[in-house]
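User
Please review the sequence:
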Amino acid sequence: MVKVIYHGKKWDIEAGITVRQAMERVGLDPRQVLAVRHGKLIADEALLKEGDEITLVSIISGG
């Protein structure tokens, strides 16, 4: 399983899917969040591996 964390909420998702699929499974819009694994940003297409812990962070823009 993969642990997905977003604003204090945690989900266990099956391994072997992409970051984008994990975001969609937990009901988040992939255009509005970024994924971090081991302190580094990872692409939406990255495959999640057994034991991964992914933190999702909101994209904040401004001007």
